[in-house]
Specification:
Elements lengths: L24 H37 L21 H13 L11 H16 L2 E4 L4 E3 L2 H11 L33 H13 L1
Antiparallel strand pairs: 1-2
């Protein structure tokens, strides 16, 4: 049987308050050499890949013409901080015909749409003034419909189902299909708290 003798460690002198042994210079030198070689190799690969991709794009674009030509984008400058360019963009976006690209996440557009719908659904308005047709509020239309009932359509002839056919099952919808967005609910709550 072999017995392991405990390895005795040399006592560490902590009286000076710092590490007294030096780092091996050879290890640091090898690390720096390998790091430099890797930087050169990776830089060469990236440069070669860039040249290859540029050549591929040039061949796919075809020869330069009136419509296809290279542009030096460095001459454009920093467009984001160029006030003249921002003014031109603002003028173009104001004159651009509808539908325009939304400048926010679209919440205000949806809220405006629902406000216009509410105006039509909750108020009287002319549908065709020349013929005397008027839109009535939806609540009033439902009251009239409940009081008068719907016109009854003539019964359609039903053919016998073919072998293996089943009668279709028609289920009532779970909702009316209209719901306010979270943005609209937040706006309504803010309006209510201001009042």
């Amino acid at each position: 049987m072999h017995t392991h003798e405990p390895h005795e460690q040399e006592p560490i002198d902590t009286s000076k308050g710092y590490e007294q042994s030096d780092a091996r210079v050879s290890g640091v030198f090898v690390f720096l050499v390998v790091l430099g070689i890797m930087a050169v190799v990776i830089g060469g690969i990236a440069f070669g890949l860039g040249k290859f991709l540029n050549r591929q794009m040039a061949t796919e674009d075809g020869p330069t013409s009136r419509w296809v030509h290279p542009v030096d984008t460095r001459t454009l400058g920093n467009m984001a901080s160029n006030p003249e360019m921002q003014q031109k963009i603002a003028e173009q976006t104001q004159s651009f015909p509808a539908p325009r690209v939304q400048i926010d996440d679209g919440n205000q557009d949806v809220a405006d749409l629902h406000l216009r719908e509410d105006l039509l659904l909750d108020n009287y308005s002319w549908a065709d003034q020349s013929q005397g047709k008027v839109r009535i509020p939806i609540e009033r239309a439902m009251e009239l419909l409940a009081a008068r009932g719907l016109p009854v359509a003539p019964a359609a002839e039903q053919s016998l189902p073919m072998t293996g056919d089943e009668q279709p099952l028609i289920a009532a919808p779970l909702t009316s299909g209209f719901a306010r967005t979270g943005y609209e609910l937040d706006q309504a709550a803010a309006m209510g708290s201001q009042r």
